[in-house]
Amino acid sequence: MKTSTPLPMPEDDQDGTRSQRGIQSLDSTGALLEALLEAGRPLPLGDLARLAGMPAAKAFPHLVSLQKIGLLSRDAQGNFFPGALSLDLGLAALQRLSPLREAEAEVATLAQATGLSVALAVVGPLGPTVVRLEESSRPQHVSLRIGTVLSMVHTAIGRVCAAHLPPDMLAGALAMDAIRMEGAQPDSVAHADGSLRHDYAERLRQIREQAMDQALGRPVPGIHTLAAPVFNHAGQLALVMAIMGSSGSFDTALEGDAALLLRAAAQSVSWRLGAVEPAMAAMRG
After folding, report:
1. CATH of span 24-91
2. How far is CA 196 from CA 3, 161, 180, in A?
């Protein structure tokens, strides 16, 4: 009776984890795909091989196979670009993404790096709504809770939301904002026909240009806020990320250290959600 030979077990890496043997040729294939992705434009064989760090003669068979399965296509000039299968895989990956889940790691890191409270908000049925709050270890009175609905006029988070809403949605949202906020007048930022008053429209334009807004001592005296947009793969607002702290506890300048950390965190989440130009260009300033 023949006995079967046991399959070899993967060796332990130095950190104690099991290493998994891959197909070495696919590593080269992956290098070509990564090079094309980093270039961000169609590339000819020579340029693509050079960026991937391999001879063109080695790269060509990989590229032929990638074309056959639809991961790459080639135009009339001989340039390689992502094929139909690449697009399908990308869309499938994007559909599985959760903005809140992707932002979670950045919230904790940003709170630790700045020592400030960090909030995430989305545009809900009633307006900008806080959905995540990481409170600072420093004593400060931030009157935010998960579920808090914020003004689109008087808060940095709300104005960032307003700056990136389609005009038809913004008019209705501002009307709702006026109803919810005690003492607010609906005509303070918009005319009767729904068009924005100059000062408010200019503020929203600046927010889009700077990819950030600040609220200094308003609506809560003594509390300063910086807020930045996070975009999805369609260039739409996915959520707003904000840092908050007591007056004098951090640099509130839009190019200060805290703002740079916030902008980098928001940009990182946008990138993971598939955001592309022009949204990312606006965030880079």
Report:
1. 1.10.10.10
2. 82, 15, 19
